[in-house]
């Protein structure tokens, strides 16, 4: 992993969580439960994202939500009454777990802003513009679950150097046919874990893709990203694309990809959610026998 130099580099103090999406691929489950609160085994997706940001030293977390998804704010913030009820019933371990998971008053600065209409990821990030702290900002997409230690965002912040590139995006190599589902880097070179780039294209046709380096849901972006988002015309899908704003700033602040060490699961899809649940369960000894039995049963059925 690329280490920071001894120069006085800016801290990444803010993380933006775009959580306003309707989660239509998980209906009917998401009719009443936001997709970010769907569990991977027993842990909501958003908890993984919060813990990743917390481990990376983020000071302010901004959740860009939708008025219909107030359950997210209820989950994120501490519920003192529930904790006290659990302690009164002798369930201190559960109360402690809820307290540790919550973003308690004084531990981190939490802000909620609304995105009333689904106008794209770029628009969601722009909704947070008035709440960010000075300096570069991180963006975390909770339904892109990246399991590994250290966390992906911690790795990216450790490697971030605006002298080399002000915009950094997490990337992974995908199959040629899959590029049409991602933003894709135009690669000019490599520097350790960094993939140097002179631009990116949103959801290209495989025949026109500049590479197979696909952007996934972690970003560390120079603060100029908000200026580049303002007035940006709709792009792919008729939405304001964050990819287009990043590409707009390449000539000014630079761009690089980052090859993270963890394993990424697309939990915006049912297949990815199932894969993540199996992988996460496999990290816990108490579920290994169940998984082994299930695997044996499936092999016997073939």
Automatic annotation (TrEMBL):
Any one of the GO BP annotations: UDP-alpha-D-glucose metabolic process
Catalysed reaction, written as an equation: alpha-D-glucose 1-phosphate + UTP + H(+) = UDP-alpha-D-glucose + diphosphate
The organism's taxonomic lineage, starting at the top: Bacteria, Pseudomonadati, Pseudomonadota, Alphaproteobacteria, Rhodobacterales
This enzyme's EC code(s): 2.7.7.9
Protein name: UTP--glucose-1-phosphate uridylyltransferase
Annotated ranges, domain Nucleotidyl transferase: 20-277
Keyword terms: Nucleotidyltransferase, Transferase
Pfam families registered for this protein in UniProt: NTP_transferase
Catalytic EC class: transferase
Family: Belongs to the UDPGP type 2 family.
């Amino acid at each position: 992993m690329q280490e920071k130099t001894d120069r006085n580099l800016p801290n990444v103090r803010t993380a933006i969580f775009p959580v306003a999406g309707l989660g239509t691929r998980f209906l009917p489950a998401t009719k009443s439960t936001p997709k970010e609160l769907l569990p991977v085994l027993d842990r909501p997706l958003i908890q993984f994202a919060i813990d990743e940001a917390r481990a990376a030293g983020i000071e302010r977390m901004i959740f860009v939500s939708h008025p219909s998804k107030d359950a997210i704010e209820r989950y994120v913030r501490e519920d003192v009454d529930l904790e006290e009820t659990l302690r009164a019933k002798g369930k201190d371990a559960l109360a402690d777990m809820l307290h540790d998971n919550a973003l308690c008053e004084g531990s981190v600065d939490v802000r909620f802003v609304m995105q009333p209409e689904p106008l794209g990821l770029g628009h969601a990030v722009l909704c947070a513009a008035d709440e960010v702290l000075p300096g570069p900002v991180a963006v975390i997409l909770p339904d892109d679950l990246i399991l590994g230690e250290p966390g992906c965002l911690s790795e990216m912040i450790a490697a971030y150097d605006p002298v080399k590139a002000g915009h950094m995006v997490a990337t992974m190599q995908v199959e040629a046919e899959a590029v049409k589902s991602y933003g894709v880097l135009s690669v000019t070179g490599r520097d350790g874990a960094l993939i140097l780039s002179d631009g990116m294209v949103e959801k290209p046709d495989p025949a026109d893709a500049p590479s197979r380096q696909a952007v996934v849901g972690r970003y560390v972006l120079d603060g100029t990203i908000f200026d580049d988002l303002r007035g940006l015309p709709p792009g792919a899908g008729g939405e304001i694309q964050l990819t287009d704003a990043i590409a707009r700033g390449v000539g000014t602040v630079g761009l690089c990809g980052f090859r993270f060490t963890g394993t990424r699961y697309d939990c915006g899809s049912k297949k990815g959610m199932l894969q993540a649940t199996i992988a996460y369960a496999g990290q816990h000894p108490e579920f290994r026998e169940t998984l082994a039995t299930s695997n044996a049963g499936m092999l016997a059925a073939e």
